[in-house]
Structure formats: structure tokens, C-alpha cells
Amino acid sequence: MKQKDNAAKITTDATVFATQLEIPDKVNRVLEIGTGTGVLSLILAQRFENIHIDAIDINEKASNEASYNFDNSVWHERLNAINVDFRQYNIGSKYDLIFTNPPFFNNHLQSKLNQAKNTAYHTDQLSFQDLAKGIELNIADGGELHIMLPEFEMKLFEMEINKLGFNCFKSICLMHKPNSKTIRLFKSFKREEISTKIQNGKIYIRDENNNFHPFYISLMKDFLTIF
User: Which residues form the Methyltransferase small domain (predicted)?
Assistant: First the structure.
């Protein structure tokens, strides 16, 4: 897995996001916003054999590296890396499912030397309002949105996506250990009224004894050689 040229490196929270994400059987066309190395799309292509993924990134080096990683995988025919600004992305046909681990730092101190890292982690190039509008433009009727963000930033994004008629139907807290703070939230949305109770859950990376949690192992065993 090549990630030398990527400002956004592979992280534990992002890989858990991809391994826990469930995709309905009817889903065929999938869009990833901000693919970075392409690892999340690779995980989903491995898990779900009927999906085809367009993985976009505004950074040309990141997109080229994702393309290299796709081309050197056994799932390359179902993966397509695209170098494009999501704010200008609209190919006409809609996606059954969109997923993203978007930039989320807002008004934070930025690097003076690494603009690519600023773009990958800060909302300057893709605000939550722009993200929500782009999702509305590109998602099919009945389509699903899956997104990973910290708690506070998730509240900000949810305000924007709710304005466009999307409602949460599933919320998962990622935590380092039981009783620790939430590291990230994984939320799922549909553009429709949700008549059933929101599905809530928690994922722990480690247990009370600081060993890897059994459920975390079950999620990651097909992707990490340590298991």
C-alpha cells in the first residue's frame, strides 16, 4: 500500500469506519469523497463484490497514489480514482451510496509549509455547507450517506445536511476503551423521514485490560496482519 505522497496517511479510525460500514445488496454505484490513499475504497471493494467505486480527491498527488494502489489490487476493475474538486463534481448520474472521511478542522492553526496537509485536514477548501450541497447533488433517490467526523464537527455537519432533508438512521461511537471519550462518530443518513428508532452502537479498539477488543479484531482481521 503506497502512501508516500499523501498528506493524509492511513489511520485506525478511518479503517474502522470502512470495516464497519454496511452496504445494502441493491447498491452498485458508490462515491468516496476525499479518498487520499484509496484505502477505504479498497476495503469496501474487498468486502462487497458488487459495488463500483469512484474515489475523488482534490489533490493530484493523492489521486495519483490512490490510482496506483487501485491498479495494483485485484479489485482494480471496480475502482476509479478521479482528481477533481468536489465542489465542481456533477457527472449527471447519481450514486446509490456516498461515504466520506472529510476535512474537519475549522479555524485551526495550519502548516506554513505543507498546503496539501492543510487541504486534507481543514475545511477551507470544502466547507460542511459545500459538502452537504454536493452530496445532495450527487446522491440518488433512496441513496445512503455514511460519514465519519469528531463529535463537535458532526453536529455542525448534521445541521447542514438536515436542511436538505437528510435524516440520521444510524450512529456509531468509536472509543479507545470502554468509558473513554468518543474518538469519532460514524453516522448514516437518508433523504427521507426515518420512522424507526435510530440504530446506536459503540466500537472499542481495546478492552478494560488494554488488549484489542474482540469486536475490533473481528472487524480488522481480514485487513491487518497482526490478527
Answer: 15-108
